[in-house]
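Hi there,

I know you've been waiting on this one. I reran it after we fixed the sequence typo, so this is the corrected version. Both the input and the resulting structure follow.
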Amino acid sequence: MPSRRIAPWLAGACLAGAIASASSTVLAADPGPDTLPVSVVSIQTNDADEQADSLTKALRSSIRQMPGWSLGEGDYSLEVITLVLKCEPTDATCASRIADQIKADRYVWGVLKKKGPNVIGDLYKTEVYALARYCNELHGTQRIPEIILTKEPSADLAPGQKDTDSLPPYPVLDEILKFYIEGERLRASEYAQARRFVRDLHAQGQADVVQKVLTLVARSEFKRRQAPPIIRVRPRAFGTGRQIPIVAQVHYVPEEAAAAA
């Protein structure tokens, strides 16, 4: 039997994945002589179903858009396959058996676990970008590739999907969130800037943008309950330290936001 080579793929500190090469023929979507067919086995998890599903979709979307690649057919579950084969995917022999089972020359697999604190969970998006650039400057090298810092923000949940399809640009989003979540707990200069920004949005007839962001924050509270502990660096907690009902049918604009209008 030809040897099979496995190379690890990491996504964050918790995802361990692999691309395995086997002797079988993959059933690729839109195959061609110049395309490399790759299958994605659904990411396995015991405690982060929504995140694993999103990551699986993102991987498949990325492969669809990768020049010279095509996405293999089939929606396979790593958990089901390993139960049937009674083996662990980290074992080279098991990896070969999985490849035979799904008839794939190359496949991506992964296991997602909640582990350890979320070290940047209390930062706003613009602060995450600023921190990444600072790290590159501090080390004098592109530890975080420039393409990651300059590409259009996207969760890659669908071909061509961008964060701005459903959210305002990060600089706008962050000012609204600062004013709504932290308010007067911000430093005086930060609070004045955020308050002025929200007031200007109201004056420009964009109060609906503010309301949309606040509604999304309220509706997404359940997601924060699923997240690992967040290291608090901001004046007001945005994880388990911020007690907001998960289920609510209240549509409201906080007094602070109304006062800024």
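Quick highlight: The chain has ten helices and six strands.

Best,
R. S.
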